[in-house]
Amino acid sequence: MNRKILIILNFLLLAIIFVFGYYFVTERQRIFAQSNFGIYPSVNLLDSSVAGTEGSVLEIKREKPAEKEIRGLYLTSYSAASSRKIDEIIEFMKGTDLNAVVIDIKDYSGQLSYDSNVKLVEELGTDRTTIKDLPAVVKKLHDNDIYAIARQTVFQDPELSEKKPEWAVKNSATGGVWRDNKGLGWMDASRQEVWEYNVAIAKEAISLGFDEINFDYIRFPSDGKMSLMQFAEMNGRSKAEVMAEFFKYLYENLKDEPAYISGDLFGFTTERSDDMNIGQQIEDAALYFDYVCPMVYPSHYPSGYLNLKNPAANPYEVITQAMKKGTESIQPVTKEIIEKSMDENGQAIEIKKEITTTYRAKIRPWLQAFNMGAVYTPAMIDAQIKASNEQGGYGYLLWNARNVYNYAPSVQ
Fold first, then answer.
1. CA 57 to CA 135: how far, in whole Å?
2. Cα 133 from Cα 384, distance rounded (Å)
3. Which of 112, 238, 311, 343 is deepest in the core (most CB within 10 A)?
4. What is the span of the domain harbouring residue 92?
């Protein structure tokens, strides 16, 4: 073969290797993205079944849907991007108890899964076009009478911490961005700029047709070198006080939008009276959300809980206890207070008053649909649902990080 041709072929081969290498390095976070409890399912990035046309973002004006009991399952943005997967899920749900789907629009990485028109998102480039036509996906769900929930992570946000490090939790030893045990950056929950950024994204998601925004990671970090965390604007407030103010901010800024809001909480919030050093208290959240969603996965309770050697193998007992305590926590509470005043003669007097606190939220738990601590059979999923229903749960959401659902609860 001609030497010149060989040189050209070698040059082309090197160019191809370079292009694929660059793609792998820049996109590896998306390809190997991990959720809370597992790895996202693989998606053929060249799959012609991926829904929609890149960059098509439509604003949908509509009324808030009538409230109903939601029984849903979780999908990653990669699953939602595949029209084949969406069609499979719709078919899977037919004739079952399920009536809702939760889709990542901003996952643990902090990257938005669609082409956003939010000004700051555009400026920072924190969005991707994983789901090429998000309104079309939502419309398809609605056409099949499926309630659409957008899952939005908030303070765990490695993407924003890289683009806006001045808004991130600081490492007091280095002055740089603080990172947890997985090396992920977190946003400073005390900074209102972070609140505004997330509300803008939520409003956009609502305009694209979602019936509900489900906020996750609405807390302070729970692992890593905690003593090195530095926050900018605590101003003497506790973590619980900051988070309660954030919950109120979400309510005030989204209450007039045509969608519901829900908040994901650690499972132990249903029975702990403290904030576990992460700022979450179910009573604070229940004042402002439409639904509080404790993640009461039996596999996440320690050995010895309820005197059980392996809580994961005893889902009915675990969910019964967690939901019983959670339901009790958000019942109306009446407290007697004493106010000091002056009578007509200028004498100091005490006036007793009763103040009743009524919580807005209903409790809708995340339930375990994945194998951890035990192999989760249909009977174990049913046992969780039964326990939740018995203890006042208003629907449920099923979590499987890989979106592998081999069983759908039957119509009750």
1. 7
2. 35
3. 112
4. 65-399
- The per-residue pLDDT for 35 is 37
Q: Look up residue 361 and give its amino acid.
A: A
Does a structural domain hold residue 332?
yes
pLDDT at 43 over 50: no
Which CB contacts under 8 angstroms, 24+ apart, belong to 386-392? Answer: 386/316, 387/315, 387/316, 387/317, 387/318, 387/319, 387/320, 387/323, 388/319, 388/323, 390/320, 390/323, 391/319, 391/320, 391/323, 391/324, 391/326, 391/327, 392/323, 392/327, 392/363
Q: How many domains does the chain have?
A: 1
Residue 395 lies in a domain: yes
Encoding tokens for residue 332?
A: 């109306």
pLDDT digits (tens, 9 = 90+) for 276-292: 999 999 999 999 999 99
Q: What is the mean pLDDT of residues 64-85?
A: 97
Residue 270 lies in a domain: yes
Going by C-alpha positions, the residue among 275, 213, 291, 268 that lies closest to residue 243 is 275
Please state the rounded mean pLDDT for residues 314-340: 91
Per-residue model confidence as pLDDT tens digits over 258-277:
999 999 999 999 999 999 99
Which are the contacts of 269, defined by CB distance < 8 A and separation ≥ 6?
276, 280, 281, 282, 285, 294, 326
User: pLDDT at residue 44 above 60?
Assistant: no
State pTM to two decimals. Answer: 0.84
Q: Which domain CATH number covers 269?
A: 3.20.20.80
